[in-house]
Amino acid sequence: MEAQGTRNPEGKSHQFVETVKKAQSGDKASMEDILSLFSVDIEYLSKFIMLPREEAIQTLKIELINIVYQDL
Description:
Distance between the termini: 41 Å
Largest sheet: none
Oligomer: single chain
Shape: elongated
Number of strands: 0
Low-confidence stretches: none
């Protein structure tokens, strides 16, 4: 029997894929959603890059954007 409150990762995964597709087609709001989704991870990872904090964050955001557009 499934526990109550079990997440539906398949539904979230599908929603994320749709957001990525929209971002790839030029939807700026979708790209903002993706950047927002990863903002906590970007903040955390920026601590390990030997650059000023804001520059590290900007670099990580640029790389994430490149990854999204890479699958075109």
